[in-house]
Amino acid sequence: MKTIFEKSVPGRAACLPDRPEQYAGAYIPASLMRESFAGLPEVSELDVVRHFTELSRKNFGVDGNFYPLGSCTMKYNPKFTEAVAAMPGFTRLHPVLPQLKGAGRLCQGALEVMYEMERHLCEITGMSAFTLHPMAGAHGELTGAMIIAAYHKDKGHKKTKILCPDSAHGTNPASASIAGFEVVNVPSKDGIVDPAELAKVLDDEVAALMMTMPNTLGLFESHLPEIVAMLREKDALLYYDGANLNAILGKMRVGDAGFDVMHINLHKTFATPHGGGGPGAGPVGVCEKLAPYLPVSRVAKMEDGQFFLDYDYPKSIGYVSPFYGNFGVTLKAYAYILRLGREGLIRVSENAVLAANYIRKRLEDRLHIPFNRTCMHEFVASASELAKKGVHALDLAKALLDKGHHSPTVYFPLIVKEAVMIEPTETESLETIDQFIDDLLAILDQAEADPASLHDAPLTTPVSRLDETKAARDMVLTQDMLEDSRGL
Amino acid sequence: MPFVPHIDSQVRRMLDVIGAASVDELFADIHPELRPKSFDLPSGKSEMAVMAQMEALSRKNDTHLVSFLGAGFYDHHIPSAIDALCSRGEFYTAYTPYQPEASQGTLQAIFEFQTAIARLLGLPCVNAGVYDGGSALFEAAMMAVRHTKRRKMVICGAVNPIYRVMFSSYTSNLNLDLVTVPARDGATDFKALTAALDENTAAVLVQNPNFFGFIEDYTALFATAKAKGAVSIVSVYPVLQALLKTPGEMGADICVAEGQSLGLPLSFGGPYLGLMACTKGMIRQLPGRIVGRTVDRLGRPGFVLTLQAREQHIRRQKATSNICSNQALCALRALMYLCLVGERGLKRTAGLCLEQAHKAAARLTAIPGVKLMQDKPFGNEFALTLPQSAYGVIDRLTARGYVPGFPLGRYYPGLESGLLVACTEKTTDENIGIMAEMLKGSLA
After folding, report:
1. Pick from B296, B358, B273: nearest CA to A23
2. How far apart are CA B311 and CA B314, in angstroms?
3. Hey, which bits of A325-367 come out as E strands?
4. Contacts of B350 in chain A (CB under 8 A)
5. Nearest by CB to A178, which of B85, B217, B321?
6. CA distance B277 to B123
7. How far apart are CA B417 and CA B212, in angstroms?
8. In A60-170, where does DSSP find H-type helix?
9. CA-wise closest residue to A352 among A94, A165, A73
10. Residue A294: strand, helix, or coil
11. CB distance B354–A43 less than 8 Å?
C-alpha cells in the first residue's frame, strides 16, 4: 500500500481556510522564514478518508478480535465514555483558565470531575490522596519514585537504592533509574518475592521496594505482610505498581495492605482505550505521610462547595505534567466508575479471575504452566517443551493471528523461558474464550504433527513475518530516507 | 452487570472446570487480614443516567467565552474527518504494535507521522511522540546529557515557564547544573546565553517563537554551542513551522514541540502530544517508539518498531527512558491534520494566525498606555505592557465574557502589567474589535 506522500498530487487540497491570508512576508523578515517547502501531502479529503480507512483494516483491535495480551488488560472499551470525553463543555476548556484569578468559577464542572475522581480512587485503593497528573503508567512510576526521593530527603534519610523483583515490568527499574536511584534486583522464589532473598539486599540505603500485585506471573504475593514489616524496620517505602489492579477490586485495598505509594493504569483497570499505544493515564496515590509531596496543583473544595486549584504545598515535588494530566482520559474512567458502581467493579475482578483460571485449567494438560496454582486475572504458560521440537512462543503467537485472535504477550516476564502470558479479561464471552482455547489446542496438535509448518505463520495477515534486523540496520524511518535508499 | 457477558450457568460451568465451589474460593490467597476495610462506592447507574450526570457537569464549564488565551496551547479548527477516522475501533482499541503483522495500520501511520514531522521541523529523525511538549523538552535534555557526558544545562528564561517548572521538578534529584538566563522584557538575551556556554555545557535550550511570542534566529547561538561541544535544543510551535526558518536550518541538534495545535482539542490540558526530532548523529539517544520500514519473508514491504535495544522492556534500568507508550492516537490525529490541511492549508493557517495577531496588536497598541513589550517580529501571540496590573484587567473583561490573554506576572515577577495575547485562524475581526473596546474602557 502506498504511503500518503506517494499519493500526493501537487495543487490538490482538502481542508483550506476559506480566506487567503496576506503574504506572511508583510509581518516577518525573509531571514526568519523557512527556505524549503515543508513537503506535506497534497491530497483531497476523500483521499485522506480512503487512506486511513484502508490503514485501519490492517489492524487488530478489541472491537474486532479477542486480544488476550497479558499484562495489558485489553478489555472492551465502552462507547459511551467516548461520547462523554467529546462533550464540548470539556473539549473546549483552555487549561490555563483556572489559573486566572476568579476564573475558577468558569470551569467548576471539570474541577468537580477531578475532585470526585480522586475521592473515588482513594476509596477503591484505600490510599489517602491522589494526583491525576501522570500521563501514563510509567509516568506514574516516575512520579512515585520522585515522591519517594522527596520524602527521604525531607526526613534526612540517605537512601539511594530502589529494589525491583526480577518479575517486574521493565518500566519499574527504568523509572527508578530516571528518578536518580540505583536499581537492585530481588530474585523470586516459586514465582513470588522471597523474604529471605529480600533480607539479603535490604540495607539502610534502600528507599523503596516496587511490587506488582498480583505479580506479572498472575500470582498473589503471599508473603506481603512479612515484606511490609521488613521494609518498615528499615524506613523503606513500599510501592504498588497498579498494572494489575483489575484483579483485586473490592477484594483487597492497596492502602489497607500497607503500601505507601501506587499508580493506576486507567487504560487497564478502568477500560479507557489503548489507542494503539496511548494516550493512557497513570494517577498516583499515596498514604497520608506522603501527601505533602504530591505534584501541584491539587484540586480542593471550599466550604461553600466551590472547587479550586491549590498550589500551596511547599514540600511538593512540583510539576510532572503541564496541567492536570490527561483530562480526557480521566473523564472516560470516571464515567466508567459511575456506570459500574461498587458491585460492578467487584464483578470486574471476579470475572477476570474466573476467566483466567478457566483457560489455565483447560490448557494445563497440553501446555507447561510453570507455577500452576490458582492464578489471579492472568497466568503465564511456557512453550519450553515445544521449543525442543523447534516450535517457539513466537510461533504460537503468529499462528493465533491466523485464527483471528491477537496473540498473548510472549517472552515476558523474563524469568519464564518461552513465556506465553494470557489475560482474557472479564468482558469476553465464554463462546469467545472456548473458541480461543480450541484454536490454541489445534495449533498445539499442529505443532506435534508438523512443527515446521508453524514457522510460516501468519499467512492471513497483510504481511507475514518481518525482517527486524534489516529494519534496525537500514534505519528507514521516513519517506525521505526511503527515497534516499532507493537512489543509492 | 454491564460489560460482563456470563450467565449463571456459564459461571457454574467455568467453576466446575476449575474445580472450585465458588468464585470467592479463587481469592483464597488474599488472607482475611488483607481484605478491604471499606469499599464504599455509589451503586452503578444506567448509561442514560451517567450521560445525564456528565452532561450536567460539562454545563458547569463556561465554553462560550471569547478567549485570547494561548501560552503554548491554541484553539485551532479541527477538521471533522479526524474525529470520524479516529473513532474507528481498529485504531483506538488496538495497543502498541508488538505484533507487527496485525498492526500494519498503526505502524504505517507512525512512519508517515515521522515523515511529516521530520519535514515540518527540518530534522531527519523523529520518534512516535511522547506525552507532551514539556516531557519532550526533559527527554531532549537527557539525550544531551548522555551524548556529551556533561551535566550543565543552559536554559533561556523565555522558554515556556510551564515547561521550565516541569524541568526543575524532573531534574531535582539528578545532580544537573541548571543555569537559567533571564529574558529581558520578553527578549531572549543572546549575549548572556552565549556567555553561559562553556566546556561543561551539555545543552542550550531555547524556544521559537519564545514564550512572549517573539520570533528569533538562533543560528549563531547554535554555532557557538557546537563549537563548545554542547547540544542545541529548540522548542517550537508546529503550526508556524509552515513559515518559519526550521530548527534544521538553524543548526539545532534536537527539536521538541507541543503537538496539540495539530488537530487535538484543548480538553483542559490533555491528552496532548510531545514531538521530538533530531539529527542522525543523535538517533540512538532518542527515547520512545520508532518505526522503521523493512520487508517480510516474501519480500513485501512492511513496518516494525525498530531500534528497540534503547527501550525499557529490553534494557530495564539502562534504557534511554522509562517511556513505554507514545500517545499513538494523538500522533494519528496530528498526522491526519497535516494531511487534511496539507502544504497549502498549513501555510495559510499559519498566515491567518499571523494576520489576526497583527491586527489585534495594531488595535490594542492604539489604546493610550498600551505598548508592545518589544519592537520585534512576532507570530500568532504577542506580549503587551499595560498601564496597570494585567490581573485586574483580565478579571474585569472575563466577567464580561472576554478573556483578553494570559497574565505574564504569574511566572515573571516584575511583569505584573504584562499581558500575553494569542490569536488563531478562528479569531474574528469582530471579536478583536470588541475586546479592544472593552480593554480601552477598562483602562480609562
Report:
1. B358
2. 6
3. none
4. 24
5. B321
6. 6
7. 13
8. 80-85, 88-91, 108-125, 137-155
9. A73
10. coil
11. no
d(C-alpha A252, C-alpha B35), whole Å: 5
Cβ atoms < 10 Å from Cβ of A287? 19
Which of B97, B118, B322 is closest, CB to CB, to A175? B322
Pick from A9, A18, A27 the residue to mutate for testing the B interface (most B CBs within 10 Å): A27
What pLDDT, on the 0 to 100 scale, is given for residue B275? 98
Q: How far apart are CA B267 and CA B78, in angstroms?
A: 13
Of residues B131, B295, B307, nearest to A467 (C-beta): B295
- Residues A256, B34: C-beta atoms closer than 8 Å: yes
- Supply B411's cell numbers: 511566572
Q: Cα(A345)–Cα(A324) distance, rounded to whole angstroms?
A: 25
- Helix (H/G/I), strand (E/B), else coil: A420: strand
Question: Euclidean distance between the first and final Cα of chain B, in Å?
Answer: 63
- Which of A93-102, B181-190, B320-329 is predicted least confidently? B320-329
Contact A345 B302 (CB under 8 A): no
Beta-carbon contacts of residue B443 (< 8 Å; ≥ 6 apart): B367, B368, B369, B370, B386, B387, B388, B393
Query: Is B38 within 8 Å of A253 when comparing Cβ atoms?
Result: yes
Percent of chain A with pLDDT over 70: 100
Chain A residues in contact with B39 (beta carbon < 8 A): 123-124, 250, 253, 342, 346
Residue in B closest to A427 by C-alpha: B4
3-state secondary structure A221-259: CCCHHHHHHHHHHCCCEEEEEECCHHHCCCCCCCCCCCC
User: Are A280 and A139 contacting, i.e. CB atoms less than 8 angstroms apart?
Assistant: no
Question: CA of B256: how far to CAs of A281, B27, B135, B139, B232, in Å?
Answer: 22, 48, 9, 9, 11
B422 forms beta bridges with B381
Cell numbers found for residue B250: 538553524
Percentage of chain B with pLDDT > 70? 100
CA angle (B2, B7, B9) in 5-degree steps? 160
Q: C-alpha angle B103/B105/B107, rounded to 5°?
A: 70
CB contact under 8 A, A465 and B290: no
Give the start-to-end residue ranges of the domains of chain B: 66-76+343-443, 80-336
Three-class SS state of A159: coil
What integer is the mean pLDDT of A209-234? 94
ipTM exceeding 0.85?
yes
Q: Which amino acid is at B347?
A: K
pLDDT for residue B313? 77
Alpha-carbon distance of B227 to B224, in angstroms, equals 5
* Record: contact B94-A59, CB cut-off 8 A: yes
Q: Which CATH class is domain B80-336?
A: alpha beta
Domains of chain A: 82-338 (3.40.640.10), 350-468 (3.90.1150.10)
Question: What would the mean pLDDT of A217-221 be, rounded to a whole number?
Answer: 91
CATH superfamily of B66-76+343-443: Aspartate Aminotransferase, domain 1 (3.90.1150.10)
CA nearest A167: which of A208, A136, A212, A200?
A: A212
**Residues in A 135-164 with any Cβ partner in B closer than 8 A:** 135-139, 141-142, 146, 149-150, 153
Tell me the residue type at A182. E
- What's the pLDDT tens digit per position in A294-345? 999 999 999 999 999 999 999 999 999 999 999 999 999 999 999 999 999 9
CA-closest candidate to residue B304, choices A465, A56, A421? A465
Residue A241 bridge partners (DSSP): A212, A263
Task: Check residue B373 and report its DSSP letter.
Answer: S
- Please give the torsion angle defined by the CA atoms of residues A287, A290, A295 and A297, in that order, rounded to the nearest 10 degrees: 70
- Kindly calculate the radius of gyration of chain B based on its CA atoms and give it in whole angstroms: 25
* Pair type for strands A161-165 and A206-212: parallel
Least confident of A82-86, A96-100, B9-13, B192-196: A96-100
